[in-house]
Amino acid sequence: MKLLASLLLALTTGVACGGGGLAASATPPPFAIVEDLPGLVDAAPLIIVGKVVEIQPGRIAGEGAGRLQFNDVRVGVEKRLKGEAPGAVVVEQVDMTGRRVLGIGPAYKGGERYLLFLRQGEGERYITITQGRYLLSRGSVRPTEPGLVADKVKGMDEAKFIEEIEAIVRRER
Questions:
Q1: Does residue 8 surpass a pLDDT of 50?
Q2: What is the average pLDDT value for the chain, to the nearest integer?
Q3: What's the CA gap between 109 and 125, in Å, rounded?
Q4: pTM metric for this prediction
Q5: CATH code at position 63
Q6: Deepest of 54, 61, 78, 164, by most Cβ within 10 A of its Cβ?
Q7: Domain residues for 47?
Q8: Which of 25-51 are b and which e, b meaning 16 or more Cβ less than 10 Å from the residue's Cβ?
C-alpha cells in the first residue's frame, strides 16, 4: 500500500518518496486531462507510430518501500507524426510486474505496435502523456487507458486515426 501511495504521489506531483522523505524528481509532473484529439495532439511534443523492439530493466528511483523499478521500452519509429524523433526512442514505464495502476496501463510486449503521444522524460527517455498510448492491432485503435479521447477513438480504423492526427498537426503549423 505504501508503494502505491508513493507511486501515485510521484505520478501526480513529480515528487518521489523514499527512505521516509520526499525528493524532487527531474521529470516534470504529468499533464492536464485533455478532452479531445486536438488537445492531445497539442499537449504532446512528439507523436510517433512504432513497434516495440526491446524491453529491459531501466533506472531505479527511491529506496525501501518507496522504491520503483522502471523498464526501458525501445520502440522503433515507423512514422513520425509530430516533433523530431530518432530511428528508435526509449519509453520509460514503471515496472508493475503483473499489477495494473491507473494511468500506467498494461506492460508493453515485444512486437506490439503503438501510436504514442510522448514528452521528454529523464535523460534520453520519453514518457507517454495521459491518454497517450494506443495499441494498433488488426488495423484498429485500442486505447491502453480510459479517458475522453480514448472513448472517442476506441475501435477506430488505424489509418483514419493517423490521418486525423496528421491533419491536426498541419493546422497547428
A1: no
A2: 83
A3: 18
A4: 0.79
A5: 2.40.50.120
A6: 61
A7: 33-172
A8: bebeebbeebeebbbbbebbebbbbbb
Listed ranges 29-43, 68-82, 92-106; the one with the highest mean pLDDT: 68-82
Q: What does the pLDDT average to over 57-80? A: 90
Does a structural domain hold residue 20?
no
Domains of the chain: total: 1
Q: How many residues does the chain have?
A: 173
Q: List 77's β-bridge partners, or say none.
A: 50
In a domain, 4, yes or no: no
Question: Residue 60: helix, strand or coil by DSSP?
Answer: strand
The set of cell numbers assigned to 170 is: 498541419
Q: Answer whether residue 3 is part of any domain.
A: no
Cell numbers standing for residue 12: 501526480
Name the grid cell of 36: 479531445
Q: Is residue 60 part of a domain?
A: yes
Q: What is the DSSP letter of 69?
A: E
Q: Among candidates 161, 147, 116, 34, which has minimal Cα distance to 108?
A: 116
- Largest Cα separation within the chain, whole Å, is 49
- Here the cell at position 60 is 531505479
Give the tens place of pLDDT for each residue, 87-120.
999 999 988 775 555 557 788 999 999 999 999 9
- The closest alpha carbon to 2, from 22, 13, 25, 18, belongs to 18
